[in-house]
């Protein structure tokens, strides 16, 4: 142990860690064609890497110029202690800004002129990448020890990841090659002969003899003509042909008669008198599968998706003045027989809870409230547990009440003035548990709502319309932010927003045209580059405006990040950290949700402007990379780093306001 604090760090996750004796590996992606994977190839790739500075031999300056950093005492980390409340502190550790986490410091006048004290310099390295026959998409080629150099560390590796580009004719499936071949109806019925040009430029002749009928969507294969096996290229998979028979659009009357004369007669069916005759419509199942996500419908009953509505929230004013006191007495009686009564939620049977037609009673204790660290969250936690328990019991129309068992004690007097805050926290937590994910509401309509109505009774002045308006915004925010990357791809978000704000006081402007986005929002277009080739992932720009009735006293501007899925692009999110990145659109979701609440409450004197930049950060041969320099809408040259989506909007909002 270097210090007594190391013991604390071992138990509570401090910053003391063993540093790896190797520098981090550097990963580069290399786009390759199917021809190169089939025949093998040699590619040259220029990469940038860090190498030890020859002038200072990795010291960063003159000999003896290194000094121990006085700010962090050589640890490279600084610790800040923040007091959260009486007896509660938070210990925050961050990289030392003076030495940038190195633990050492060099006086500026003693720094190396070549590396400027960084100990390393950037160098261009030309790698010769050998692509062997049979390698697959995602195959990793490692150049051991060619990674970035750092003083005192072994160089890591440079790893080249192969990215197979789509072929115009062939598609790979493991060791097999699949191609689609279109046949005319004559060829399918009477036989044919075709020539296939392979990936190694050979020409193969395939023949189907007359009398052998080729069915639509049927498969045939040629053995040992598929992809070569990696490290055993003389063994190959299958060459599979998928036949698509092209039928004529129409037939003449004479042709129909001739065909009927050659084919077996049609089967005859008995048609009942009460049978309905309906027209057949053309449909493309592949396109129709996503049609409800893309095409808004005019009919309110068949509207886009199933936007969740807030449950009917009503304040209950009991006619019987002993309404709450009767509950308190019931709870006190139950407490005498249950030692865990104040620790867990309790369900009381109907014959006990016979007040005001209430048939089920759940008591969810907050626990003690008079300790110095107790706060409003104890009410939220109790509301959450209580609602979950009443749902399990089959309740659909719960009433939330805050009951103080001893209204004359000091705790009651202390908290009575904050009762409205406790009601807000409890109700917002309770309402949240009625949420059903958007995908469930659309696929299983019978499970579209957990709660039909929610009542509350309290000493505070909680307003039902305000609470309902806030929850409408939170629902919209969860729908956009929490739904999967396909359900809430950028075009689907635009359609969803348009549907929910139609016939409201919110003005909507949506930019669909990709050429306009490229011209007006070049930084957003850079992120959109890899996704642009997939129509259902194309970027959208959404602008929402609320203009109040009467004079405008102030303007609120909101700009939200709407990355529907963030793969990291060229800086791929490896190691499992990509999971959950569909929530990278929650910033834009919050903007939409806030405007939804504004639409419901219609505040006076406040103008609200909201911008949502919706895009998918895909990875591919056309993705943007760090260090690119792009000219923004403002005419400023920007080197790619992060936060590309909101920069142009923030600049634009400055002029709008």
Automatic annotation (TrEMBL):
Q: Which InterPro entries match?
A: DnaJ_C, DNJA1/2-like, HSP40/DnaJ_pept-bd, HSP_DnaJ_Cys-rich_dom, HSP_DnaJ_Cys-rich_dom_sf, Leucine_aapep/pepB, Peptidase_M17_C
CR-type domain ranges (all copies): 40-124
Q: Name one Pfam family in it.
A: DnaJ_C
- Top-rank taxon, per record: Eukaryota
**Which GO-annotated molecular functions does the record name?**
Hsp70 protein binding; manganese ion binding; metalloaminopeptidase activity; unfolded protein binding; zinc ion binding
Sorted keywords for this record are:
Acetylation, Aminopeptidase, Hydrolase, Lipoprotein, Membrane, Metal-binding, Methylation, Phosphoprotein, Protease, Repeat, Zinc, Zinc-finger
Organism equals: Argiope bruennichi (Wasp spider)
Kindly list the places in or outside the cell where this protein is found, as annotated in its UniProt entry.
Membrane
Quote the Gene3D superfamilies the UniProt record gives.
Answer: Heat shock protein DnaJ, cysteine-rich domain, Urease metallochaperone UreE, N-terminal domain, Zn peptidases
Membrane topology, record value: Lipid-anchor
Q: Which Gene Ontology BP terms does the record give?
A: protein folding; proteolysis
Q: What's the name of the protein?
A: DnaJ subfamily A member 1 like protein
Coiled coil start-end: none
Q: Where is this region: Disordered?
A: 282-305
Task: Provide the family line.
Answer: Belongs to the peptidase M17 family.
Q: Which Gene Ontology terms of cellular component type are present?
A: cytoplasm; membrane
Question: Where does the protein principally reside?
Answer: membrane
ZnF (CR-type) intervals: 40-124
Name the PROSITE patterns for this protein: ZF_CR (PS51188)
């Amino acid at each position: 142990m270097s210090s007594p604090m190391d013991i604390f760090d071992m138990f509570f996750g401090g910053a003391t860690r063993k540093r790896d004796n190797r520098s981090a590996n550097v990963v580069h992606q290399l786009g390759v064609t199917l021809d190169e994977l089939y025949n093998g190839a040699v590619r040259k790739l220029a990469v940038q890497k860090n190498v030890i500075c020859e002038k200072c031999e990795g010291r960063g300056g003159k000999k003896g110029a290194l000094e121990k950093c006085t700010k962090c005492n050589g640890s490279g980390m600084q610790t800040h202690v923040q007091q959260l409340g009486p007896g509660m502190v938070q210990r925050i550790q961050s990289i030392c800004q003076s030495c940038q986490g190195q633990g050492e410091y060099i006086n500026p006048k003693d720094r190396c002129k070549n590396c400027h004290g960084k100990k390393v310099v950037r160098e261009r390295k030309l790698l010769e990448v050998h692509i062997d026959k049979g390698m697959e998409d995602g195959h990793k080629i490692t150049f051991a020890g060619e990674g970035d150099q750092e003083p005192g560390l072994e160089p890591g590796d440079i790893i080249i990841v192969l990215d197979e580009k789509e072929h115009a004719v062939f598609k790979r499936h493991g060791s097999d090659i699949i191609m689609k071949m279109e046949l005319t109806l004559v060829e399918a019925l009477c036989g044919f002969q075709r020539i296939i040009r392979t990936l190694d430029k050979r020409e193969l002749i395939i023949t189907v003899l007359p009398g052998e009928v080729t069915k639509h969507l049927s498969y045939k294969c040629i053995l040992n003509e598929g992809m070569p096996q990696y490290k055993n290229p003389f063994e190959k998979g299958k060459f599979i042909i998928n036949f698509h028979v092209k039928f004529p659009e129409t037939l003449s009357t004479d042709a129909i008669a001739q065909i009927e004369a050659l084919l077996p007669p049609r089967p005859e069916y008995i048609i009942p008198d009460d049978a309905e005759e309906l027209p057949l419509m053309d449909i493309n199942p592949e396109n129709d599968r996503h049609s409800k996500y893309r095409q808004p419908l005019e009919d309110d009953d068949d509207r886009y998706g199933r936007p969740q509505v807030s449950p009917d929230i009503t304040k209950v004013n009991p006619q019987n003045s002993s309404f709450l006191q009767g509950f308190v007495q019931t709870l006190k009686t139950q407490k005498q027989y249950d030692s865990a009564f104040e620790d867990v939620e309790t369900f009381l049977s109907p014959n006990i809870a016979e007040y005001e037609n209430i048939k089920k009673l759940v008591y969810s204790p907050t626990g003690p409230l008079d300790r110095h660290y107790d706060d409003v969250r104890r009410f939220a936690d109790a509301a959450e547990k209580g609602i979950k328990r009443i749902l399990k019991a089959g309740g659909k129309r719960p009433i939330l009440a805050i009951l103080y068992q001893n209204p004359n004690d000091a705790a009651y007097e202390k908290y009575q003035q904050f009762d409205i805050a406790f009601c807000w926290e409890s109700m917002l937590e309770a309402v949240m548990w009625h949420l059903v994910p958007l995908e469930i509401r659309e696929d299983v309509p019978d499970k579209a709502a957990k709660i039909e109505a929610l009542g509350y009774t309290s000493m505070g002045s909680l307003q039902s319309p305000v609470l309902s308006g806030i929850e409408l915004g939170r629902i919209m925010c969860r729908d956009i932010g929490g739904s999967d990357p396909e359900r809430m791809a950028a075009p689907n978000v635009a359609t969803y927003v348009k549907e929910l704000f139609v016939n409201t006081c919110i003005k909507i402007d949506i930019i669909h045209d990709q050429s306009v986005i490229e011209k007006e929002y070049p930084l957003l277009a850079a992120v959109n580059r890899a996704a642009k080739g997939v129509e259902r992932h194309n970027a959208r720009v959404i602008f929402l405006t609320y203009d109040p009735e009467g004079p405008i006293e102030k303007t609120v501007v909101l700009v939200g990040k709407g990355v529907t899925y963030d793969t990291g692009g060229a800086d791929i999110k490896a190691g499992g950290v990509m999971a959950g990145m569909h929530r990278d659109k929650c910033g834009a979701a919050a903007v939409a949700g806030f405007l939804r609440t504004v639409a419901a409450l219609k505040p006076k004197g406040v103008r609200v402007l909201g911008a949502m930049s919706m895009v998918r950060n895909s990875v591919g041969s056309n993705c943007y990379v760090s260090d690119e320099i792009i000219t923004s809408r403002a005419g400023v040259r920007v080197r790619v780093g992060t936060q590309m989506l909101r920069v142009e909007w923030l600049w634009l909002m400055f002029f709008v306001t």
